[in-house]
Amino acid sequence: MAHDAPSSSFPLGRLLHVLRLTAQMPPPRRPPLPSHADSLPGCFLPLSWSACAQCCVDLKSCQTASIVTADASAQVRNHADAQVQTEALEPVSVQPPSRCDIPRLAAFLRRVEAMVIRELNKNWQSHAFDGFEVNWTEQQQMVSCLHTLGYPPAQAQGLHVTGISWNSTGSVVACAYGRVDHGDWSTLKSFVCAWNLDRRGLSPRQPSAVVEAPSAVLCLAFHPLQPSHVAGGLYSGEVLVWDLSRPEDPLLWRTGLTDDTHTDPVSQVVWLPEPGHSHRFQVLSVATDGKVLLWQGIGTGQLQLTEGFALVTQQLPRSTKLKKHPRGETEVGATAVAFSSFDPRLFILGTEGGFPLKCSLAVGEAALTRMPSSVPLRAPAQFTFSPHGGPIYSVSCSPFHRNLFLSAGTDGHVHLYSMLQAPPLTSLQLSLKYLFAVRWSPVRPLVFAAASGEGDVQLFDLQKSSQKPTVSIKQTQDESPVYCLEFNSQQTQLLAAGDAQGTVKVWQLSTEFTEQGPREAEDLDRLAAEVAT
Amino acid sequence: MAEVEETLKRIQSHKGVIGTVVVNAEGIPIRTTLDNSTTVQYAGLLHQLTMKAKSTVRDIDPQNDLTFLRIRSKKHEIMVAPGNLAFHFLVKLSFCFTR
């Protein structure tokens, strides 16, 4: 049977059709569905929904009510920008020329140029300010004695002050008591006394530290870094190192009396930095037996010999004619030593023969000596300078010029040598008696001080006068000699000097000795150069 | 333009002159022969000093005016030539100490 598609012979099709209808838009009014159920054979099921299927579906509008909106004003707070991030400062650049007024600049320069050139010319031709120097600090005009220190038990024995040293901080001065005119004083006990000048309640008769030594101490040197270690050389040839901060047992190291030690009194001791370890130091000692020995303190309290040098007449360089010596090896006694501030291996030795020697620690030649020694002795001398009229007692290398050094001896003369030539640059007669010590000033390149046998300390300023001393300080009243002196490198206005009466006097120098003038270093160079020619 | 440069060069090559700086009325350097940071430092410091010196001279005598300012120190001398629109100063090695 051919029927229309919607009206299928099955009742399910009618259900689907209605469902389809209701799922879509509500259809317009339609005629009621033909019910074909009557014509179909088979069972007949009454359709309960066909009644409701005949009801019409109305289209109704569906709409929500419109929402009423109105604009109201909104208030915003005032705000300002604050910068919270730091930026690198932009360098103010020079304004590019295009922005500034060139013609006006040109006019200004034209106007100003003549005046400026005139002033410049006047400037370098004028002598207006030639001698003018402003001093912003107070002037100290005179040299005055700050302290007079002494140790009564030593003075009672008639001991002289033979060595003086300032410690590394510049506040402690130590002196060694002994006799310079040795004789049979080798068995007498002597002392090393130290005064702390910065301490309140400084008592001039009461040293802050006193150490007894088994024999006369002839020289003294404080450790360059440790404020309480001091090395001393004895009349017996020993070298001792004390620690002054330990009053109950001050002795740190000693050489003892072995084959290595000096056989003559030790003339001078110096602390040297170890090559390689700049904070460890060794002690160098020179004596009149001709030996220069380098000691190292080891743990057991023993000073052990690390290097040794011996001076033999045959091995001296023949740069100057020396007095002929009798045959055989003769030792040359060394009486003073000074190390160069510019070359740490170079040193100057003063000898009993009166001629300074330029020596070096870095030599290889062995010394022709029969003296027994645990380390091989080498010959250190490289150059011989012209001699004094007598033994040299003191040498000092200039801290400002690498070639200049001073030497002073028993002939009462001070010689200024340059290491480049054998004869001295100048020779000054300071005293009719001996000169015992000479020292360059640590702050003024042209100033040095000398201690004389007439009891005064003479200060020379080569800038002012090269013939006579600028200041002559009388240390002793009875003209007994002054044996040693040292400048204080930390407090540069202090100078300590020790004399034969057993007193140490600390002098305060006037300001002219403590402040460097405008071109002193160049003057020193000029002096070294002009006198040499 | 070339005249400006030439004048400055003449001054700069004078014996003993280390540096030259030209500064405008606000204290900003417009020409210099020194390096930047030094120029700025000199300009700032000397501008104030020159203004003070100028006002001092005017205060003492209102008909008077500053013509030249020199500052001599241990190492150098600074010479300032003021103008109504610019200041001009030099840093100069003081040759007066030679004999």
From TrEMBL, chain A:
One MF annotation (Gene Ontology) recorded for this entry: dynein heavy chain binding
A Pfam family it matches: WD40
Keywords recorded for this protein, A-Z: Cytoplasm, Repeat, WD repeat
GO cellular component: axoneme; centriole; centrosome; ciliary basal body; cytoplasmic dynein complex; cytosol; filopodium; nuclear body
SMART domains recorded: WD40
Gene Ontology biological-process annotations: cilium assembly; intraciliary retrograde transport
Protein's recorded name: Dynein 2 intermediate chain 2
Species, as recorded: Aotus nancymaae (Ma's night monkey)
Taxonomy of the source species: Eukaryota, Metazoa, Chordata, Craniata, Vertebrata
Gene name of the encoded protein: DYNC2I2
Automatic annotation (TrEMBL), chain B:
InterPro entries in the cross-refs: DYNLRB1/2 (IPR016561), Roadblock/LAMTOR2_dom (IPR004942)
Location of the Roadblock/LAMTOR2 domain: 4-93
Localization: Cytoplasm, Cytoskeleton
GO function terms (MF aspect): dynein intermediate chain binding
SMART domains: Robl_LC7 (SM00960)
One term under GO cellular component: cytoplasm
Keywords: Cytoplasm, Cytoskeleton, Dynein, Microtubule, Motor protein, Transport
Any single Pfam family the record assigns to this protein: Robl_LC7
One of the protein's GO biological processes: microtubule-based movement
UniProt xrefs under SUPFAM superfamilies: Roadblock/LC7 domain
Binding partners and assembly: Homodimer. The cytoplasmic dynein 1 complex consists of two catalytic heavy chains (HCs) and a number of non-catalytic subunits presented by intermediate chains (ICs), light intermediate chains (LICs) and light chains (LCs); the composition seems to vary in respect to the IC, LIC and LC composition. The heavy chain homodimer serves as a scaffold for the probable homodimeric assembly of the respective non-catalytic subunits. The ICs and LICs bind directly to the HC dimer and the LCs assemble on the IC dimer.
Record's function text: Acts as one of several non-catalytic accessory components of the cytoplasmic dynein 1 complex that are thought to be involved in linking dynein to cargos and to adapter proteins that regulate dynein function. Cytoplasmic dynein 1 acts as a motor for the intracellular retrograde motility of vesicles and organelles along microtubules.
Family: Belongs to the GAMAD family.
PANTHER family assigned: DYNEIN LIGHT CHAIN ROADBLOCK
Identification of the protein by name: Dynein light chain roadblock
